[in-house]
Amino acid sequence: MGVDHAPGGLPLVLGIPADGRPGSADLAALGAAEERLAGSARTARFPLCTDLPECRSDDGPMPPRLVRELYRAVAACDALLISAAEDGGPPPDRLLSALDWAGYPFGGVLTGTPAAVIGAGAEPAGGGGVRARLRAALHTAGARVVLPGAPPPGRRHRTAARLLSAISTTSTASEEETTVTGYFEPVSVGALKLPNRLLMAPMTRSRARGGLVGPATAEYYAQRAAAGLIITEGTQPSVRGQGYIDTPGLHTADQVAAWREVTGAVHAAGGRIFAQIMHSGRVGHPVLYPDGGLPVAPSAIASGDSMYTPDGMLPHPVPHELTAAEIEEVVDEFTEAARNAVDAGFDGVELHGANGYLIQQFLADGSNRRTDRYGGSRANRIRFAAEVATAVAEAIGPERTGMRISPGTPNGGITESDTAELYPELARALAPLDLAYLHVMEFGHREVTEAVRAAWPNALLLNPHPDPASGARTTESGAEALAAGLADAITVGSEWLANPDLDVRVRAGGPFNDPDPATFYGGDERGYTDYPRLDALETSGAGR
């Protein structure tokens, strides 16, 4: 037994069905993927993996003959595509053990090989299914695992395309070059064709006096127009949506006019920019509101945190619990702010469903104790997010609409008892809307990111959570996520803040300006528009 090699100079993808019996779901899924690869890759199969004998890498120096043939077949291919159904066929224990052997010793034939696992049947929420076990085995064996993504409505699965991208990157670049190549490939996000995948994450800067952005803000964002996409700081859709001092709004004519200067400057510099619409919910304070009223929330539960106000540090009060009619009004506020954003020249909007603000307050069972249609079950807690996204998408177009989420964040006093199940379910609930993207801000919980990726059909933006012990920059951990197919683009915060030419520095491998936390919030141009560009450093021979 061996592989059936197809002629040609294209890369070779080796398909392995966990169940190779005629008519099996694994063969059907593999055939569909091979059709997707036609013209871009050669395909071959190693069939009848159900006949593989038991074999583990620690059992001895010589595996059985059939396993040795699989080893040689894997060594001859450019990528591996395994098909395994979640709800049928024999368990892949023998295939798992063969993969274990193929990764032995470290540096075996699987090391660095792009590999993907597809198949029929939905994967269990939070992982633990057949395909998750296979991916874990591949990862342990050193393979470069390409994660799946749910197909958009009426379209084919994207895993095959991601596998091709991984082959291209692996075969044409060194590890250092892969970081650069991955970031500087174009990608489609909604209606936009982004020139690169190094995006600027939203960051509150508290420099909008009276809710109005000014010339310095236009300069700040225009300096960073080389980002594939700029997502602005959180911008309140109403007076009661404000959570911090001097944050901008999108609910008055003056605010729209002020933002128009910013978008004009970014577009003139060749950039693309989305407005992040952020309603802070209970993370606010009466001193911010002209009428001195309470902040609002799904339930009358205080965050337990404090915030900086014109009167110093003050605890967040117990918020006003929104009525059903008031919830409809808040949805309308989001919608009107989105229309205002388009009027101000933005390319689209991001709905802030992360960091403990209003949308996440509805999602989280620790802050949402409602007993009506907006509380209780996950479907009910998701309802507000879905209604906001639906209304905004209908108002400005789904291709102009994205949403940010942060599974498991403790920000704003958020607690969630069902993070692993909640966010994949949210992704599935939003999928029919065909939004431009989901934006995941990680707080650990990589397995939840993977589950969201599998459930979400369109572009996934990732603000990764580097291991603090590693000392890695976000751009470094982001490059790894891109290479693994975990995300379509990476959002970067403080590195863009401190390096207006971050794209140039990433290509060059540095050096990088360090951000100054003392100037993150409020103030003047210091720490805002005065970070030097690399060409200025080279001219002066100085650094920040």
UniProtKB/TrEMBL annotation:
One GO CC term, this protein: cytosol
GO MF: FMN binding; oxidoreductase activity, acting on the CH-CH group of donors, NAD or NADP as acceptor
Domain NADH:flavin oxidoreductase/NADH oxidase N-terminal intervals: 184-509
Superkingdom per UniProt: Bacteria
Cofactor: FMN
Pfam families: FMN_red (PF03358), Oxidored_FMN (PF00724)
Keyword set, alphabetical order: Oxidoreductase
Domain NADPH-dependent FMN reductase-like: 13-148
InterPro entries: Aldolase_TIM, Flavoprotein-like_sf, FMN_Rdtase-like_dom, OxRdtase_FMN_N, Oye-like
Family under the similarity heading: Belongs to the NADH:flavin oxidoreductase/NADH oxidase family.
PANTHER family, A to Z: NADH OXIDOREDUCTASE-RELATED, NADPH DEHYDROGENASE 2-RELATED
Name of the molecule in the record: 2,4-dienoyl-CoA reductase-like NADH-dependent reductase (Old Yellow Enzyme family)
